[in-house]
Design a protein that fits this description.
2 copies of one chain form a homodimer.
Chain A lengths: L2 H4 L6 E6 L2 H14 L3 E5 L5 E3 L2 E3 L1 H10 L17 H8 L12 H13 L4 H11 L5 E4 L6 E6 L2 E4 H7 L8 E5 L8 H7 L4 E6 L4 H10 L3 H7 L4 E4 L2 E2 L2 E2 L4 H7 L6 H7 L6 E5 L13 E4 L6 H24 L8
Parallel strand pairs in A: 1-2, 1-9, 2-5, 9-10, 10-13, 13-14
Antiparallel strand pairs in A: 3-4, 6-7, 6-8, 11-12
Helix pairs in contact in A: 2-3, 2-13, 5-6
């Protein structure tokens, strides 16, 4: 941790909202700066049951990333993974489109057994994080099942079928979150967002439509975020109108939304107090109707992640100071 | 396959009853001689749920043994196995007393998912056997859960807790089979035992109390065996009053039964037409009140297994010829 990064550490807690790989990179940067003062609220809309096992891809990516177990080359799953289970599964005619590594399976088997015993996903993930030595809190957005369904001209697809099996090739004409009507924000998420010493809420550069929207769609979540006495800062997932990885820009185009930081700002309008955009999109900053910070948002190295996390926290601090000097924020749209 | 072994092949089907490792060795010998004419009725009293997974140790041992996937050194599980799942499980605080290999897991995960979908264990195992290229029928004794419970002075233990976790160290004062009252013999087992061209029923040298008794305790099984128009031959699991492997002799002593082939004959009295004993126990043959064949029953090599299987089939053929020339067998005791 550089001396410069240390300057971003201040009193108070931070809540980050994130999905999988891209968002988890910034979460790691924040974790390096904040340690136990960080709570990561993770999308569970990608969760699904596969071969009878309860799989939580985004939660596990955050667990692996924050505990330095993530595979750095592949971008998902555990490092030094082996695939002997999958080979034996294939031999038996089992479905192999979703790649389950031998080590990775331990999370799925333990989670499935604990859920069947009636434990909450929050408690299960807290136990995993503790065993992995993670001091930050990793919080599933809800303990109730919410399932992202991608609507395409060919029909509806459960998220993983669209994302992994279909490689995001189908055209997205809509996204819906099954189960959301009867779901609640998990208790630890409520506690994190109501913490009296909350200093910032960060929306990580995950896919707004597929990874952040399920979090925001969870009943009560937006109210909790808006009611929090801390600035809300989003980091744009776009760099020069394109996504670093994944289908964000493709989906925005398919949903008739321009793949621009302005569209990201509109998407989060009423919820965020500021947007961090990449230098490649700096020309659009004048068009944004909210405070904006320009950074180098591509996170290739861990140093990049920590630097961006520090800049995001500085930006949030600045917004908080400005808010103190200004009239209260208006009601969210 | 030696020319000598080939001489044992005759018309008709054979049903073998067996448990795990020891019994599976003879089942392999029979399979080499009989191919698709062999049906193996396997003990499922050892089955248990572990980490939410449905595990059938004896069935899987037979699957691995007959498909040449069994680990020859260790005596259980798959060859060329890896243990990365177990390592990750340990890291997460999961139970590791029952060793689940990465490849082995594929059977448990697929079986659990299929059972949850409502498929029968018989159908599931038939699919596994087919994928493994096994031509013989591998038949769970029942599709209903029957669970062997070992009664000890310290209390009752589910079989795997006694056998694997406790390494058979507890004193056995009784054995019971939970669920047996409401269980039925599986349909494929009924069909195998009623086959018009059945030429022999072989009780493999598995533990009579822990591996064969659950099969015989399944309601209807003894009647089916006694009604079959084929000789029933058991192979003693004892060699010179000791078990080759496992707790057979220890349990017999604890149950106040002498560890002798005579006691084995008494145990199976009324059910079997003949007993195959080892040369080391030949001195006791005069004390046996039923036809007896003396063989070298230790199966170290595959050649041993095929040779013993051939001798068992020859003995059964001889008993069948004698029965044709003699009055019908009396009713079983």
């Amino acid at each position: 941790m550089s001396g410069d990064a240390l300057s971003h550490i201040g009193p108070g807690r931070v809540v980050a909202l994130c999905g999988g790989v891209g968002g988890a990179k910034l979460a790691l940067g924040l974790y390096r700066l904040l340690g136990e003062d960080l709570s990561v609220v993770v999308n569970t809309g990608d969760d699904f049951e596969h071969l009878g096992l309860a799989i939580s891809p985004d939660v596990d990516t955050v667990l692996y990333t924050l505990s330095e177990r993530a595979d750095k080359e592949r971008g998902w799953g555990r490092e030094a993974e082996s695939w002997n289970f999958l080979g034996a599964l294939s031999e038996l005619g089992g479905e192999t489109w979703f790649q389950l590594g031998d080590k990775d399976l331990a999370l799925h088997v333990l989670r499935s057994a604990a859920l069947a015993r009636g434990e909450s996903l929050s408690d299960i993930v807290a136990s995993f994080a503790q065993h992995f030595g993670i001091k930050a809190k990793i919080l599933p957005m809800s303990d109730d099942p919410i399932r992202t369904v991608v609507e395409t001209p060919e029909g509806n697809l459960p998220f993983q079928r669209y994302f992994v099996e279909g490689r995001c090739e189908e055209e997205v004409i809509g996204v819906r979150f099954d189960g959301v009507d009867t779901a609640c924000v998990s208790k630890p998420v409520i506690a994190a967002l109501k913490a009296p010493d909350l200093r910032a809420i960060v929306i990580c550069p995950s896919n707004p439509f597929l990874s952040i929207d399920p979090i925001l769609a969870t009943p009560g979540m937006q109210h909790l975020i808006r009611s929090a006495k801390a600035p809300v800062v989003a980091v744009s997932p776009l760099i020069g109108g394109a996504a670093v990885k994944g289908p964000t820009a493709k989906i925005m185009t398919e949903l008739k939304v321009p793949a621009t930081v302005q569209a990201i700002a509109v998407h989060y309008r009423g919820l965020i107090d500021g947007l961090v955009i990449d230098q490649a999109d700096a020309a659009q900053r004048e068009d944004l109707e909210l405070p904006c910070s320009v950074s180098h948002t591509l996170m290739t190295t861990e140093e990049d992640r920590v630097r961006l996390a520090g800049e995001v926290l500085d930006f949030a601090n600045k917004l908080a100071l400005e808010a103190e000097a200004a009239p209260p924020r208006g009601a969210a749209s």
